[in-house]
Design goal:
mainly alpha; rod-shaped; 4 helices; 85 residues
């Protein structure tokens, strides 16, 4: 069985009436209806995709900094340079 996390939710009284009606009509326990609603909602929304090319570009930039020969007395770049990219 998959690990589950307990959540406590509060709903308005009119939504509880709806949930109980759906439960009786569909012959399902209330949590099944809640899980189904969450599942439908998460499938309907579109989450932003990670842009792998951006990650690779950042990694290549960091690699180029690593490959620079050391500068006597101080480095040739600053941490802020990484954040400005």
């Amino acid at each position: 069985m998959a690990t589950k996390i307990r959540k406590q939710i509060y709903i308005e009284p009119h939504r509880e009436v709806i949930l109980k009606r759906l439960s009786r009509k569909q012959r399902a326990i209330e949590i099944e209806i809640i899980h189904g609603a969450i599942g439908r909602y998460t499938r309907a929304i579109r989450l932003p995709r990670r842009d792998l090319a951006t990650w690779e570009e950042g990694r290549a930039f960091i690699q180029s900094l690593i490959q620079q020969s050391p500068v006597p007395g101080r480095r040739a770049w600053w941490q802020e340079d990484l954040h400005e990219r």
